[in-house]
């Protein structure tokens, strides 16, 4: 399968994910499991291509963009598949914003990450909540003076996700 076909397959996975979310209802385990299987397969293919030394910078940027979109959809589908409203707000508190480090398209010492909007409809609250992530990432980077692993950064940042 050539690279364009792989990107088209990733697009079809994204379209299916958006269709699942467009219903506005809780996503059934059967639907989410089927989508997650396609997601994992497509994500592995795209990540292999990103790490291919023959991949051009332009294509690498396209691949990383697609991976970011797919991961955001995955997070939203996970949230929608487990969101249960119980009583007066006693159920699962959905995560509204999430940070994920991604591999940079260029070889440099700059860190690259994506802040995903999972719940906000209005842009202003999303940007205000994203500011918390940005400040936390800056503080973490300046205090350690080294690049933390994405799992440890995610752990520290996830603690600030509930305002």
Essential attributes:
2 domains, 163 residues, 5 helices
Describe this structure in words.
With 163 residues, the chain is mostly helical. It has 2 domains: 1-87; 95-163, no CATH class. Helix content is 61%, strand content 7%. The protein has 5 helices and 2 strands; from the N terminus they run H-H-H-E-E-H-H. It has helices at residues 3-22, 29-50, 57-82, 123-144, 150-158, and strands at 97-102, 112-117. The chain has a two-stranded antiparallel ribbon.
Short description:
The chain has 163 residues and is mostly helical. The chain has helices spanning 3-22, 29-50, 57-82, 123-144, 150-158, and strands spanning 97-102, 112-117.
Roughly what percent helix?
55-70%
Number of domains: 2
Rounded to the nearest angstrom, the radius of gyration is 17 Å
* Main pleated-sheet profile: 2 strands, antiparallel
Shape: flat
Briefly note the structural class of the backbone: mainly alpha
Average pLDDT value?
A: 75
Q: Count every beta strand, where a strand is a DSSP E run of 2 or more residues.
A: 2
Spatial gap, N to C terminus: 45 Å
For the largest sheet, list the strands in their spatial order: 1-2
Q: How much strand content do the residues show?
A: 5-15%
Number of helix segments? 5
Oligomeric status of the shown chains?
single chain
Low-confidence residue ranges: 147-163
N to C succession of SSEs: HHHEEHH
Topology:
Layout: H1 3-22, H2 29-50, H3 57-82, E1 97-102, E2 112-117, H4 123-144, H5 150-158
Antiparallel strand pairs: 1-2
Helix pairs in contact: 1-2, 1-3, 2-3
């Amino acid at each position: 399968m050539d690279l364009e076909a792989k990107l088209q397959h990733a697009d079809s996975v994204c379209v299916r994910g958006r269709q699942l979310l467009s219903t506005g209802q809780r996503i059934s385990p059967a639907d989410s499991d089927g989508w997650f299987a396609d997601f994992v397969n497509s994500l592995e293919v795209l990540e292999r291509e990103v790490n291919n030394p023959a991949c051009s910078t332009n294509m690498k940027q396209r691949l990383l963009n697609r991976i970011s979109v797919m991961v955001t959809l995955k997070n939203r589908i996970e949230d929608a598949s487990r969101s249960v409203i119980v009583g007066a707000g006693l159920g699962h508190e959905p995560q509204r914003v999430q940070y994920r480090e991604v591999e940079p398209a260029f070889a440099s010492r700059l860190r690259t990450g994506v802040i995903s909007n999972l719940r906000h409809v209005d842009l202003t609250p999303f940007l205000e909540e994203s500011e918390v992530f940005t400040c936390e990432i800056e503080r973490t980077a300046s205090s350690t003076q080294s690049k933390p692993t994405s799992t440890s950064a995610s752990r520290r940042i996830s603690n600030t996700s509930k305002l």
